[in-house]
Write a structure and sequence with these properties.
The structure is a single chain. The chain is α/β, with parallel strands linked by helices. 34% of the residues lie in helices and 19% in strands. It has an eight-stranded mixed β-sheet with strand order 1-2-3-4-5-6-8-10. Helix 1 runs parallel beside helix 2 and helix 2 runs parallel beside helix 3. The longest helix has 18 residues. It is globular. The two termini are 22 Å apart.
């Protein structure tokens, strides 16, 4: 299995299919994975195979490392399009996440005010007011909703704790449009959410959430479940067109 782990607290910049030149901010340990999901498609591998021994980076460690990298990029390039919270699991699981967001916005404004701050999250923590309010402050609040089927979520996203789908959808509505929904479509013996049985109810939930944008994508790197397969260009294009027909901007990444 050639799944990957990211350095902590800063990695990249990398070129993102969806976001451009992206400087990564990893709020999880560098030697393992901490996530409230255990997705069968996660490029970081299964949780049980990636138990960390190091602690999460602190607010001070993140701030100092981020400022040093931004200073270097200001002098040597490249210019970042986005500062992206991603990495080895769920960024909002770091207990200092709200304070780190404040520090990041301050440093962004100081060094690269044109860059966007993005958070890639599985949305499991959005019912916590401090997390929700921090997500409101970032430019790109990108939250996962792979399906509205609890059975599919339990087989594919595999929450590690209590997960109430209806409450999560209500939480997504709470952002009043300041949210980008991210959904992965794929095929496999455990997973296939490309059919109308999945797309139609998912699209109805998307309409209720009324996000500023929807990002749909498929597998790009090796997954811990080796039997998964990419959704086709045609399938993603058809789903994207249905979202757009509902009046919601949609971007497909292949």
């Amino acid at each position: 299995m050639s799944t990957v782990l990211y350095p902590s607290p800063i990695f990249g910049p990398v070129h993102s299919r969806r976001l451009g030149v992206s400087l990564g901010i990893n709020l999880l340990p560098a030697d393992g994975k901490v996530c409230t999901f255990d997705c069968i498609y996660c490029e970081c591998g299964f949780n049980a195979d990636r138990r960390p021994t190091q602690p999460m980076p602190t607010r001070d460690e993140v701030s100092r490392a981020l400022e040093a990298r931004l200073k270097a990029m200001q002098q040597e390039g490249p210019t970042p399009d986005v500062l992206t919270f991603a990495g080895n699991g769920e960024p909002t699981a770091n207990p200092q996440f709200p304070e780190i967001i404040d520090d990041t916005l301050r440093l962004r404004n100081q060094y690269f005010p044109q860059a966007k701050v993005s958070v890639l999250s599985n949305a499991t923590q959005i019912l916590k007011p401090p997390v929700r309010e921090a997500l409101l402050r970032v430019d790109n609040n990108i939250l996962k909703l792979d399906t509205v089927s609890p059975a599919y979520i339990n087989k594919v996203d595999r929450p590690t704790g209590h997960y109430n789908l209806e409450a999560i959808i209500e939480g997504l509505k709470w952002f009043h449009g300041h949210v980008i929904i991210q959904t992965i479509f794929m095929h496999g013996h455990h997973a296939d959410n490309t059919s109308d049985d999945f797309v139609v109810p998912w699209l109805e939930a998307i309409k209720q959430i009324a996000p500023q944008q929807v990002m749909i994508y498929t597998i790009d790197r090796e997954t811990p479940d080796l039997l998964l397969r990419k959704a086709t260009h045609e399938e993603l294009d058809q789903i994207c067109a249905r979202v757009q027909a509902a009046g919601i901007p949609c971007q497909a990444s292949y």
